[in-house]
Amino acid sequence: MQLPLALDLLVGALLLVGTAFALIGSYGLARLSDFFKRLHGPTKASTLGVGCVLVASILYFTFRPGAVGVSLHELLITLFVFLTAPISAHLLVKAALVLEPSARPAPPKPPAQGPGG
Questions:
Q1: pLDDT score, position 114
Q2: Angle 53-35-46 (CA atoms, 0-180°, nearest 5)?
Q3: What is the sign of the dihedral through the CA atoms of 103, 38, 32 and 44?
Q4: How far is CA 57 from CA 43, 63, 71, 91, 107, in A?
Q5: 10, 33, 71, 97: which sits with the fewest CB atoms below 10 Å from its CB?
Q6: pLDDT tens string 58-79
Q7: d(CA 48, CA 108)
Q8: CA-to-CA dists, residue 49 to 10, 13, 16, 18, angstroms
Q9: pTM of this prediction?
Q10: How many Å apart are CA 3 and CA 10, to the nearest integer?
């Protein structure tokens, strides 16, 4: 037995989108110029890519022939990745700013006041 066609197409689309995002994130990690830009690629694009692949895996293993129930392993992995990636990126940025305070951006300028204010 096979998966229904619509579900099969959805799983395939999620896998393609997920691998594209993971590829874009890894390309950003390799090609961007400084630490802060390089950190942005994996924490945003690669996390979304891994999430799409894991959702495709959840759908496949839940609805495949002979499946007993909902596949919770991938759901727990997805939650763990989505919780830990932003936290670890935030901690890495804070550590980088402590080690190199000159990398901190300048504070924003106050808004210009008009002639009446």
A1: 66
A2: 5
A3: negative
A4: 21, 10, 9, 30, 44
A5: 33
A6: 999 888 888 788 878 888 998 8
A7: 31
A8: 15, 12, 9, 4
A9: 0.76
A10: 11
